[in-house]
Amino acid sequence: MAQAAPLILPVILSGGSGTRLWPLSRESYPKQFWPLVSARPMLEETALRAAGPGFLPPMVVCNEAHRFLVAEQLRALAGARIVLEPAPRNSAPAIAAAALLAEESEGADTLLWLMAADSAIEDVPALHAALERAAAAARTGLIVTFGMRPTAPETGYGYIEAGAALPGLDGVQAIARFVEKPDAATAAGFATDGRHLWNSGMFVATAATLIAELAIHVPDLLAAAREAVARAKRDLDFVRLDAEAFNASPAISIDYAVMERTSHAAVVPADIGWSDLGSWSALWEVRPKDEAGNVAEGPVELVGAERCLVRSEGILTGVVGLKDAVVVVTDDAVLAMHRDQAQNVKILVERLKRAGHSEATEHRRAYRPWGHYEGVVRGERFQVKRITVRPGAKLSLQKHFHRAEHWVVVSGTAIVRRDAEEILLRENESVYLPLGCIHRMENPGMIPLVLIEVQSGSYLGEDDIVRFEDTYGRS
Question: Is the pLDDT of residue 1 over 70?
């Protein structure tokens, strides 16, 4: 896009859990971190749309538990700021904090482009053209949203009814009203009447406009955000909003808090191939299909299947004779359903949570700032894990009260500290770490370090750990 003055600050909201894409997307590793429409994760795809001339480095607001995932996926974008929410409070508190931080660092006239981390957009040049129109309107004091022209009678989206064109602002219209997710008959009318647009959840406004409108419509929320920013801590690449102040904010979306109340709202209609990827059905819509209308990802074989989405994360999956089905296979869960039931996956996840199934929210693979681990087998008083440590990374200096560990290097090289010893391990070499010893592992090499960890003891929980020193600021 052409150089803009002033530069635009992309603000990426990455707090969602994407439960309708279970079992792939879970709270521990939600959909924005998965590659869904290309080889890149959705967060990276989103950030790259807002990189280059005309843009400041992005600001990402995310869940504190995902901070190292965000940092890893944005490593290539120099200067990215990562703002940590102590707890999810919906979009308005996150946007308020972002606007205050932008005012503090870049100035009140900074243009913010607010967007979700997990939307798919096919036509990026058309997106940038719409952004130019929105930015021109935002500089006049408006909060501008992007309205997507409907391609189907979608009941899972909110809608915007566009009003009159705004004089002097090309391609910008007033907003007549917002409409919540409609029933099928109403959505069918909206899809063809030419007035109604899908609410994309993208906004452009100056920091000053956002702060002023928040002060008018939700002053208690703005006060909480202001206090959270004033008491924020900076460590590594992160801005940690103060938990007590931030959690005092009402949990409310920016639509309810401001957009449905303000007299300064406007919309830019756009046709950019947008989808919020809010369900498996939505993902099927945007993915390339074979001659029978199927989307197949991973080790999948289809016989006589039509209009299906089948995705496997590793286990060979065969589907015979199904039509309009979704089958998703991970290493610890399987989802099978008709595509028209896609919105009901959230009900299934809530039921799994109530039943105490950890698979509802947690993947077998757990990500850490140094790499990841995954459970292989667990029995009475023992468990086996496969651990992968990134080149140059190291675990915390730690000890355990209830378990001993045995590490066997599968590939790569490890430097292990065991009390006063320092031990170099290569492939097929091992070390024993008795209960209570102070230990640490480091990958000094240029390739990932992979090892098998065998734990034994009376308690094997992840909370049996005392950290003495940690590169990543964990306690």
Answer: no
Question: CA-CA distance, 163 to 172, in Å (whole number)?
Answer: 10
Structure tokens at 223: 């006060």
- pLDDT digit string (tens) for 28-65? 999 999 999 999 999 999 999 999 899 999 999 999 88
Residue 386 tokens, joined: 């496969």
Query: Does residue 178 belong to any structural domain of this protein?
Result: yes
pLDDT at site 447: 96
Q: Are residues 332 and 399 in the same domain?
A: no
Q: How far is CA 438 from CA 157, 387, 400, 403, 413, in A?
A: 53, 19, 8, 12, 20
Q: Does the pLDDT value for residue 474 go beyond 80?
A: no
Based on the domain organization, do 200 and 285 belong to the same domain?
no
Q: In this structure, are residues 205 and 191 in contact, taking their beta carbons and an 8 Å threshold?
A: no
Pairing assessment for the beta strands 421-425 and 414-418 based on DSSP bridges: antiparallel
Q: How far apart are CA 138 and CA 143, in angstroms?
A: 6
pLDDT greater than 90 at residue 182: no
Please state, in angstroms and as integers, the Cα–Cα distance from residue 244 to each residue in 18, 84, 85, 195, 473, following that order.
26, 13, 11, 43, 20
Distance CA 203, CA 403 (A): 51
